[in-house]
Design goal:
Layout lengths: L1 H20 L1 E6 L6 E6 L5 E5 L3 E5 L7 E4 L8 E6 L5 E5 L4 E6 L7 E6 L6 E6 L5 E8 L2 E7 L7 E2 L12 E2 L8 E3 L5 E4 L1 E2 L3 E4 L2 E4 L9 E8 L5 E7 L9 E4 L19 E6 L2 E6 L2 E5 L7 E4 L5 E4 L6 E4 L5 E5 L2
Antiparallel strand pairs: 1-29, 2-3, 3-4, 4-5, 6-7, 7-8, 8-9, 10-11, 11-12, 12-13, 14-17, 15-16, 16-18, 18-19, 20-21, 21-22, 23-24, 24-25, 25-26, 27-28, 28-29
């Protein structure tokens, strides 16, 4: 028994030591696109999306890439992507008109599955609970946050009835900075975070005020990640003043109470991702930070700017995407 405990302790020590000693390995920085969409299927397959109609796909863990400009959408801002395999992925363009496109043949052809021409439409992010059910969140229209839903794997989308939508405050919106301001908090319940004049966690029609920096168009919550139905971490800040605080808050009771880290991430953060056990990763214009104690303290591991960080859905790999087609990978060596 003692031997088993000792071996487990040694293994845990080695694992955490490798986490502390790790760094972000840059895999690509050859391009002009701002990559804010990132979806990692497994340790081999990952997709990115971004500005100028750009989409990229790797099937060898990011070592080599196939880049494409979606025909007919050369000026689109694809701020989010949801990939299910090396063949199937869904991309979202943000505004006027806003589009959702889907491919089932690895990006050779893209089918338009949703279009919205309403004045002021601005889509921010997508989230799927499984292969069939997904949601897209957008900035408020006529004082109500925009939500659309699919139940057929993104082949069709329906707008949620206004009586089921949360009301927005004046100058409150969402940030399309990393595709991670909306998350599933249970199998059947999604939530999203807002910023601007005020910053809230929105669950259904209910809004929970967040104690993160807010009050300007450039401030508020940009992203949140979920460990379980009660443990969330929210990050953001001010993308104009990168040192503005508070930029990170924690809840362990589903948003009833909020805590501040004893040592916060280093500046404005556009994305946060739960990795494993008590380990979280966060990135933004101010660099990449990691927490090994459930968000209580953070350590900067890279000063390179990345918009988005995502863990493999079916694997352990963690990747990053950013400006100038920059792509990185969390390296444990």
């Amino acid at each position: 028994m003692f031997k088993q405990v000792l071996l487990s302790s040694i293994s845990l020590f080695i694992f955490f030591h490798s986490i502390v000693a790790q760094h972000v390995k840059e895999l690509n920085n050859n391009g002009e696109s701002s990559l804010r969409g990132l979806s990692v299927v497994d340790d081999h397959v990952l997709w990115v999306s971004g500005s100028k109609g750009s989409v990229g796909k790797s099937t060898d863990g990011g070592l080599t890439w196939k880049w494409m400009i979606v025909k007919g959408y050369e000026n689109a801002e694809f701020r989010d992507i949801e990939a299910f395999s090396k063949n199937t992925a869904i991309i979202m363009s943000i505004a006027e008109p806003a589009y959702i496109l889907k491919t089932t043949n690895g990006g050779k052809r893209w089918k338009k599955v949703y279009e919205n021409n309403k004045s002021g439409i601005f889509l921010d992010a997508m989230e799927f609970s499984d292969f069939k059910t997904g949601y897209v969140v957008g900035d408020p229209l006529n004082g109500l946050f925009f939500i659309a839903k699919t139940i057929d794997g993104g082949n069709s989308w329906n707008e949620i009835s206004p009586n089921l939508l949360a009301k927005s405050d004046s100058a409150e919106a969402c940030f399309a900075s990393s595709g991670t301001n909306i998350r599933m908090i249970t199998k059947d319940q999604f939530a999203f975070v807002s910023g601007g004049s005020v910053s809230n966690l929105v669950i259904g029609v209910n809004k929970i005020k967040l104690p993160i920096i807010q009050g300007k168009n450039s401030t508020g919550a940009n992203s949140f990640a979920v460990k379980d139905s009660t443990t969330f971490i929210v990050v953001g800040g001010d993308f104009i003043d990168l040192t503005a605080m508070p930029n990170c808050i924690l809840t362990y009771d589903g948003g009833k109470t909020w805590n501040f880290p004893s040592k916060s991430p280093s500046g404005y953060k556009s994305c946060v991702e739960y990795i494993a056990e008590n380990i979280w990763i966060s990135c933004g214009l101010s660099g990449v930070d990691i927490s090994l104690d459930n968000g209580f303290t953070w350590k900067q591991i890279s000063k390179e700017s990345y918009h988005t960080c995502r863990k493999a859905k079916y694997g352990k790999s963690v990747y990053f995407s950013g400006n100038k087609s920059r792509i990185g990978k969390l390296n444990f060596e």
